Amino acid sequence: MRIQIIGFGVIGQGLARVLLRKEEELRQRYGLEVSVVSITDISGTAHAEEGLDLRKALSVARETGAIVNYPGAKEMSGVEAIEEIEAELVVEATPSNIKTGEPGLSHMLAGFKAGKHVVTSNKGPLALKYRQLVSEAERNNVEFRFEASVGGAMPVINLARETLSGDRITAIEGILNGTTNYILSRMTREGLSFEHVLREAQELGYAETDPTYDIEGIDTASKLVILANAIMGIDATFSDVKIRGITRITPEAIRLAKERGYVIKLIGEVKNSHLEVSPRLVPETHPLNVDGALNVAMLHCDVAGEVTVVGKGAGAIETQSAILSDIIAIWKKVKG
Ligand code: HSE
Fold it and tell me: Are residue 51 and residue 180 in the same domain, yes or no?
């Protein structure tokens, strides 16, 4: 299967690394041969019909920070690359933008129009234009999967839609942002300052390109909107979410909560069509009390009761678990 990677930051590069590592395994287990025919970042597009040398692409990105320095690369935009280069699937991994959804939105729409399947980790376009994206994919008869957009490696969308397909999900609550959970956990355990731990989360590749998305609850809200649409069939968009982030949580508040047997967590909840993100007191023994950069989602199901999943919510490599599972699901469906 020929793949185009659009966006070559933490997630795009992580995909290249995992594809290198899993090349043989994907062939043996699924008969899937992935050929990355183009990689685009803000500087341009590297393209090779026979497949790019991913090791070289990674070293060019690491050493120069611009894929246009790959031999023969051109100053070609993502949309042009999608329109002009032959491939079956686009992985859209540009930074999330919650104001316009761009450039991811245009990449996804261009992918559908070009008859290409799209796999994405990009939350902004989904949180703003979920219905439009899903209906454009259907209209063009292509697959559109976005497990990586919520919870990184924590399986939740495909779990609810596929494994729990006989259930109706009546409510969801969870920690959907690794950065804030990392910050709150370290502040709780070690009494460290907010700024210090945020810097660490950025260095570890957890934080968004603009970290205010994390700490102000915007990232959690985007994911909540995606879950409400994808799992519960609620036609919600980003502006429907009531949002409060963690910027006003002090070490003192955390200490007081701890003395009473609680932790403070940034919780996203969708219930009775109401979507809310806010810091909440969670009993230390509650299943939502997960540590570090972990994410957790508790699905309230009409048959199964409560189903809780925990997993790494961010990270260059971990997120590839979701991207790979979507690529493999598409491959299984289309290979005939
Ligand atoms: N910044 C996000 C987080 C990355 O911290 O959870 C994964 O969406």
Answer: no
pTM over 0.90, yes/no:
yes
Which domain CATH number covers 94? 3.40.50.720
Residue 152 CA: which ligand 1 atom is closest? 7
How far is CA 19 from each of CA 27, 118, 220, 275, 336, rounded to the nearest angstrom?
11, 17, 28, 36, 23
| Percentage of the chain lying above the pLDDT 70 cut | 100
206 with 282, same domain: the answer is yes
Please tell me whether residues 146 and 170 are part of one structural domain.
Answer: no
Residue range 137-162: mean pLDDT, rounded = 96
Pocket of ligand 1 (CB under 6 A): 152, 177-179, 206-208, 214, 219, 313-314
Q: Is 223 labeled as catalytic in the residue annotation?
A: yes
The answer to whether the bond into 71 is cis (omega within 30° of 0) is: no
C-beta neighbour count of 237 within 10 angstroms: 16
**What is the domain extent for residue 217?**
161-312
* Alpha carbon of 193 to ligand 1 centroid (Å): 20
Domains identified in the chain, total number:
2
The rounded Å distance from CA 207 to ligand 1 centre is 6
In this predicted structure, the answer to whether residue 336 has a pLDDT above a threshold of 80 is no
**In this predicted model, what pLDDT tens digit does every residue of 116-146 receive, in sequence order?**
999 999 999 999 999 999 999 999 999 999 9
Q: At residue 223, what is the residue type?
A: K
Cβ–Cβ < 8 Å for 238, 229 = no
Mean pLDDT of 26-53: 98
What is the per-residue burial (b if ≥16 Cβ within 10 Å, else e) of 243-268? bebbeebeeeebeebeeeebbbbbbb
- Compute the half-sphere exposure of residue 157: CA atoms within 13 Å on the CB side of its CA: 26
